[in-house]
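Morning, I've got a small favour to ask if you have a moment. I owe you a coffee for this, so here goes:

…
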Amino acid sequence: MSTPLRFSYRNALHHVTLRCNNREFLFTESSFALFHDILQEARRKFHLALYNYCLMTNHLHLFFRVAGMR
């Protein structure tokens, strides 16, 4: 079941967290680097101002602003 759409507005700050079920592992040592590369590509593609992020073995946090969001 997906989360319903949320209200957003131009220059809104977003805190996104993703966690695995049953505390299962999300990342291995090699996938940390892969996710970091994908995150940098997303920053360029979607003009994200990424203020902070935290990658852990079973969850992650992203704190960002999307520039020019309508």
